[in-house]
Amino acid sequence: MRDDLVELMQPVYDFLGCRTPQTWLDTALENLELLMQDHANCEKKAAGTAMNLMFRYSFFTDLQVKLAQLVREEMLHYEQVLEFMAKRGQEWKAVSAGRYAGELRKEIRTYEPEALIDVLIVGAFVEARSCERFAALAALVDDELGKYYRYLLKSESRHFEDYLALAKDVASTAKMKNADEDIEQRIVHIREVEKNLILSPDKVFRFHSGVPV
Predict the structure, then answer these.
(1) Are 14 and 126 in contact (CB under 8 A)?
(2) Positive or negative CA dihedral for 80, 83, 84, 85?
């Protein structure tokens, strides 16, 4: 990996609890069409999630601005992946969701502002994992796709940091007691859950799936 990319990726590696297993990478190379289809779905879902947060929490001004930027970028990436698929003669096919996002959402607390903080922390982990997988895949796929995955690294790494910053802003705005400690505890907890999802056997192969069975 180039030196500039190593520097870019280090905060992502430090944040996550593990790297993607080689078994997942091997399976990804054998299922590139499915990977690209699910990647497109992930970009669209990420934009939808950010948009929903904008409507639900419209009273957080900083949240509105950051999420609006994120929605635009995610939808741009969605369009770009669709263009890649069309260029390669790949038709759009419906793909069911994997377990990853649903299992992470189970960890979200049910009262505010803690619920929003957890949503943002989960968002940070999803973006960080996406970034880590793009970096791992970039050196393995064909040159054209590898160049695109490297292009995505800067925005994906920024998205993960934006989500964390927003979680801290929400805690500060809500005047939470022991906000920094609470956020750090939630990061540690969700990191362990996310790591287990990545390292445990998974019957369904998706962009964020675990070890293929």
Answers:
(1) no
(2) positive
162 neighbors 73 (Cβ within 8 angstroms): no
Neighbours of 181 (CB within 10 A): 10
Q: Classify each residue of 93-129 as buried b or exposed e, where b means 16 or more C-beta atoms within 10 Å of its C-beta.
A: eeeeebbbbeebeebbeeeebbebbbbbbbbbbbbbb
pLDDT in tens, 149-194: 999 998 888 899 999 999 999 998 888 888 889 999 999 999 999 9
Helix (H) or strand (E) holding 88: none
Contact 68, 54 (CB under 8 A): yes
Residue 173's contacts (CB-CB under 8 Å, 6 or more residues apart) are 60, 113
Q: How far apart are the first and last CA of the chain?
A: 29
pLDDT digits (tens, 9 = 90+) for 66-101: 999 999 999 999 999 999 999 999 988 889 999 999
Q: How many helices (H) and strands (E) does the chain have?
A: 8, 2
3-state helix, strand, coil in the chain (%, to 5): 75, 0, 25
At 112, list the tokens.
Answer: 């505010």
Nearest to 211 by CA among 195, 189, 191: 195
